[in-house]
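Lab notebook page, bench 4
Experiment: in silico fold of construct C2
Operator: M.H.
Input chain length: 344 residues
Purpose: comparison with the prior construct
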Amino acid sequence: MRTLISLSLALLAIIAVRGQQPGKSATYVLKPTPKTVAWGYYDAKTPRVLSVKSGDIVEIQTLITSSPKRLEEAGVPPDQVEQSLRDITDQVKDKGPGGHILTGPIYIEGAEIGDVLEVKILSAKLAIPYAYNGFGPGRGFLPEDYPYPKMKIIPLDEKRMIARFAPGIEIPLHPFFGSMGVAPPETSGRLSSNPPWIQAGNLDNKDLVAGTTLYIPVHAPGALFEVGDGHAGQGDGEVDITALETSLIGTFQFVVRKDIRLRWPRAETPTHFITMGLHEDLNEATKLAVREMIDFLMNEKHLSRDDAYMLSSVAADLHITELVDGNKGVHMMLPKSIFVSPGR
């Protein structure tokens, strides 16, 4: 068994190592407690709550981004509010500047500045039977149209994998983590969890479901991975500033990649390659996503610069990831099926 490196966690966090065998990956469980979360920030100086090796697997529980008081006022029965959320709300005083409760950070041994952390999302499961959607004054994409707050509790049917939005309206569930990121460069200091950037973070990319892989440039020793902002589903754009916000349990495998160099996060699904652009200006975010796709095609598929631009135009699709978190998000998706074997 590997010794768990943490700060004052032995009695305060439920973190276990299971089934490690010589030469094989270890599996850990990390639950949210007042000592195992970072509330609203990514920061290279945040103490690790767990250390793992490249190739290890961690089951991580995340919490809904809300307070027990708000949930109960919106109609959630008190016994359905997670005790861990109550504990963290009561005990965590070092918060912000963002609003997400992030589980972590996890230190991945061997991850150095300039490497890439490969995050394999093995599973994403519902932890509670409800989600919420809400908006508030001055927030969202249409703040001038909605200068008041509203919050709606939406029941989740895990068996049928649908959300009961309203009578006659059922939304298919596609659980994913809105925020998955590493520490930014130490010189950046504490960054809000709200806007996504080079460290990934609050990407709000609904395509990053179970079975996909996220690649994040490493900016601090050990990478310091954090995750939260669980979504049961979302529309591209996330226009009112929230999705189907809920608590999730995810299983992740972390692999340190020293054979890749990236400037921005990228991703891969079973069917598509994904590049991303993150910028306060939507046009600039779009340019970044396109340039990243051109770079991918040149370096990974060995196309000329001109052919990479042309292929991006005729085969790749641009999506507005989200519009409401400071930096706008755009991602470009290229189907893997266009790359055929010689002789086919």
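Observations: The chain is about 15% helix and 35% strand. The longest strand covers residues 116-126.
Next step: discuss at group meeting.
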